[in-house]
Amino acid sequence: MTPPVSTQFAFTAAQSNCTWADLAELWDVGDGLDVFEIGWVYDHFYPLRTGPEEPTLEGWSTLAMLLARTRRLRGGVLVTGIPFRHPAVLAKMAVTVDVASGGRLELGLGAGWFEPECTAYGIELGPIPERFARFEEALTIIRSLLTQPTTSFEGRYYRLQDAWCEPKATQQPHPPIVLGGKGERRLLPLVARYADRWNYSGDDVTEFIRLRDRLAELCESEGRRLEDVTLSANVRPSLDDTRAVTDQVVAYVDAGVQLVCVLLPRPYDPRLLEQLAPTLNDLR
Predict the structure, then answer these.
(1) Residue 189 contacts by C-beta under 8 Å, 6 or more apart in sequence?
(2) How many helices (H) and strands (E) does the chain have?
(3) CB neighbours (10 Å) of residue 122?
């Protein structure tokens, strides 16, 4: 009999409505708690729930600095908005962070969606079908640059000619590609084709199960198995009762989730990670 796979845990702390010192302290504490394997930031230039005048640090430079000050935690941007950076530039960024961190990068990628920041910064977001067509081109390019000696590509949105991406990442064949979201028509087929991990962005276990089963079908059509994709989902701890997260974790794990991401509430307090650690450790 195959032994059960232990549950992994990550924490997510968006780099908005906080200070650099807040984030740095949070990651320092998380790095010392072995129950947490991954730390996530996000890829937005504006906060999502407050006014644009509130502070927001850039995601990839924040991630690089956090990985530079830690020694054990893996880290990633959940998820990188493809419209913000040319995929060839993003591939070089990913390699640089993976090499500099000793192979600790999680490569989160997404189609992009937050219109206010795109409008303000003059970034072309486009309608949803266009976003996902561009996203698929970018996924093809990034994976090729990370794995092939050179890449040539002729698409609607991107063109590359004999493009090199050296050195290659420390993690081979490439850092884990993480796609996040819950779109059944456009996202899940890309997960089945390209992803090493899928992060379900909703909060309904029943919906997760339905999408998980659909992903299994899509993986089969791509010649893959659902087991080839690490399934992850998000939980929200209560500030008043850190043990209340247990029911959320158990429900998702019973539904097949292998990686549970704890969405940390603001204001960030590293003591919450310390309070959660014993409870989560019992659930591994």
Answers:
(1) 218
(2) 9, 11
(3) 6
Cβ density class 52-77: b for 16+ within 10 Å, e for less: eeeebbebbebbbebbeebeebbbbb
In a domain, 3, yes or no: no
Taking the alpha carbons at both ends of the chain, their separation in whole angstroms is: 19
State the DSSP H helix or E strand holding residue 252, giving kind and residue range, or none if neither: helix 245-254
Q: Answer whether 56's CB lies under 8 Å from 44's CB.
A: yes
At 108-127, the pLDDT tens digits run: 999 999 999 999 999 999 99
Residue 177 lies in a domain: yes
| Distances 76 to 40, 105, 175, 184, 191 between C-alpha atoms, Å | 5, 6, 10, 24, 17
DSSP state of 16: B
Our count of domains for the chain comes to: 1
CA dist 39 and 28 (Å) reads 11
User: Which structural domain, as residue segments, surrounds residue 214?
Assistant: 8-282
User: Which residues in the chain belong to E strands, given as ranges?
Assistant: 8-12, 36-41, 74-77, 80-81, 105-110, 150-154, 159-164, 177-180, 197-200, 230-235, 259-263
**Do 17 and 44 contact (CB within 8 A), yes or no?**
no
Whichever domain contains 201, its CATH number is: 3.20.20.30
Reduced to 3 states (helix: H, G, I; strand: E, B; else coil), residue 39 is: strand
Tokens of 112: 């992009």
Question: Which pLDDT tens digit goes with each residue over 188-240?
Answer: 999 999 999 999 999 999 999 999 999 999 999 999 999 999 999 999 997 77
